[in-house]
Amino acid sequence: xxxxxLSEKPTTGQRARTIGSRxxxxxxxxxxxxxxxxxxxxxxxxxxxxxxxxCSEYVKQTIAAEGIKRALPLCQQRFQACRAAHETxxxxxxxxx
Length: 97
Fold this sequence. Notes:
- The chain has 97 residues and is an all-alpha fold.
- The chain has helices at 12-40, 45-50, 55-66, 68-96.
- Helix 1 runs antiparallel to helix 3 (55-66) and helix 3 (55-66) packs antiparallel against helix 4 (68-96).
- The longest helix is centred in the first third of the chain and has 29 residues, at 12-40.
- It is elongated.
């Protein structure tokens, strides 16, 4: 019998913490969307320019589906795209005035 590398297999406790962390992150984003985001008075630039999901909804769904560790690089890409959308919209509005 070959040796099995147990360090690659998450234990039940590690899985529970991962699921708990994922749920906590999703619930925290949901609270932000419900109570804080409406107070800002503006919308996500990416959603405004491209349509589709806001960044907070994208992050919430990505974390729920992929977990926090896998979602981080995807969320970082999304925030970079949102920043670019913000710059584009800022230029449009400046030219429009």
